[in-house]
Amino acid sequence: MNTAADQLKLFLRNQQVLVTGGTGSIGREIVASLLKHGARKIVIFNKDDSKQYLLKQTYAGLPHVHFLLGDIRDYERVEFATRGMDLIFHAAALKQVPICEEHPFEAVKTNVLGSEHIIRASIVNQVHKVVNISTDKAVNPTNTMGASKLLAEKLFSQANQMLHPSRTRFCSVRFGNVLGSRGSVIPLFLHQVKAHKPLTVTDSRMTRFFMSIHQAAYLTLKAALYCSGGETFILKMESLRLSDLCKAMSLFCKQEQLPEPHVQVIGVRPGEKLHEELLSVKEVRHLFEDEELYVVYPPGLQQKDSQHFKPSAIQDYRSDQIQPATPRKLLAILNQYEQQGKV
Q1: What are φ and ψ of residue 271, in 5° steps?
Q2: Considering its fold, how many domains does the chain have in total?
């Protein structure tokens, strides 16, 4: 019997794939993974010409990697980008909580209306599967970014229910914090200690789910493989306490013979939670799992339709209620990012 890795490679081989937001941290890792799995054509769609220029240098000489400059807010450009595609990975979004709090109309235009454009264009062009990249902040949201991503999730889920007969199937993946991605805390803290600046900490009691960029891309590809329509896929991930990450930074500084970092408490930012959630109360009634993933199936699923996933008995999934990573493990992660040149 084929392993999951074999199934994934067979599924992705010779596919024509569009990656929106393909020059961002997650998008770039998805593109790299698609190349390893033998995708026939990869189209990278983004609105930042500088990032596109730099990434084009990386893939110069690869005739099956193409670039399109455009904005998901522009339906005509999105419709053009989706022509002939088999799969779409929708990573384009406004993701910074404070920025979305300051500019909520912009968050709606990109995260909600832009997602609607992806859905409409995918149906028009008969794309096979579309995977929406979401966030734990979409669960019981307390900020604009989370609320806009919750609406995007609902658009993707409902597209499977309302738009039949359509060959297109839509699903979402829900991430925790992606360590090492642009704007995440590890690159920030490493920059601060190397510049002999204090660590800016919102609240030391804060906990967060975390995953690597590689795990994030892997979850996204697996979601495309398993998607039947309407699911939300969640990686089984670890959590960290911000206080433990500060301890890991102290260990890192001692290891690198840097001054002991001072912690500057700046307070919780508008819209931030102390702890994150990956499941709502309603979702646990439709929750299945395997060794790596949880999956929330749409209501009405029959047991026979759940593929290899089995019903899950967990009642919640909160970052403060699972065993956190130790400072020593977090130090190993810091060292890994240093060695890989990710900061």
Answers
A1: 90, -10
A2: 1
